[in-house]
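for the writeup, i need someone to sanity check this before i put it in the appendix. the sequnce is what the collaborator sent (i think, or maybe the updated version? ugh). structure was predicted straight from it, no edits. if anything looks off just tell me and ill rerun, i have time this weekend
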Amino acid sequence: MSRKFARFTILLVAIALVMGMVGTVAPYRAKAAATKVGLSFSDFATERWKNEEVLMRALFEEKGYEVISQEANHDVKLQNDQIDNMVAQGVAAIIVIAEDGDAITTAVDAAADEGVLVIAYDRLIKSPKIAAYISFNNVEVGRQQAAGVLTALDIEGGEWTVENPVKLVKLGGSPTDNNAILFRQGQDEMLQPYVDEGIIEVVADQWVDNWDALNALNIMENILTAQNNEIDAVVASNDGTALGALQAMSAQGLAGIVPISGQDATADGCNSIVKGELTVSILKDIRNLSPLAIDLTDELLQGGDADLVEYTMAELTNDDTLEGTVMAYFLPVEQVNADNVYELVVESGFQSYDDVYRDIPEDERPPEPEMSEGE
């Protein structure tokens, strides 16, 4: 991490914790001299999770904690067992990236009952016993995905009418990930008015198990066959599913012609953007979320207070049957497209210049950004 960005991260976290939030979490006291913490990941197949594991481990170790980190490979039972094992090993806190926000409550509630602080990281755990939920503005992610596709379509330009509607495909994320529901909420806020007007026709609406690119590839192949390749736009919910869909679209000559969204500003996703294939991704800067998670966990374990916003479980899930509240905080997101990928992703150091411009001829690349001392 660069010195410049480290200073920026410290400032952002300080501002967020001191000024940007309301409400409080009661002090959570760890056992005396407890220095062991856990990191529980749903999987490492998703590019960002391994990157965040490395960053969070380093940040915890800088503060003197011993870290136990495990990855469940999309296995819900295994993740529950791993959390139980971390509790048995005496962890004072666990940061959890849940494979299934419902099923994980079994282990999480048991951990909380044992006095272990549980932070739901980026994905909601549907239990009021968690100490906090920190993530990005996931509804806004969906809004920006849809907005990027609508802009690429020039939806207000006059081409699209009731007689000639956009044939739109929706590719949701994993149905066990509450974030996928929130992304869809934001997407529909942007899309539904055009659907109601008859300007957009949703010709397929599928969810992609495990956010798996191969699943997305197979789903898109079937959609293209059913629609005789006559689709005009795809709102996909992350880069992995979008790139899987793009493989199927490329085989039919549609990549770079049919707008498609993604998320996470992955190296492969940004490379696809500069190649003119993926239309838009969403930058959720883990370099801000990971330090926030570690600082919040440390503050609570030291017996301090953390200022967070209280949300009902119902408003976080769009499920009015769920009861209870959760203390939470959400970081902002940014839309990445061909016009700003260099500035937002490359110049900021979020992804490397060589990764983003892989396979792009030298004479078609922008100049490599100069890195300041220490970067």
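The longest strand covers residues 200-207. The two ends are 7 Å apart (CA to CA).
thx in advance!!
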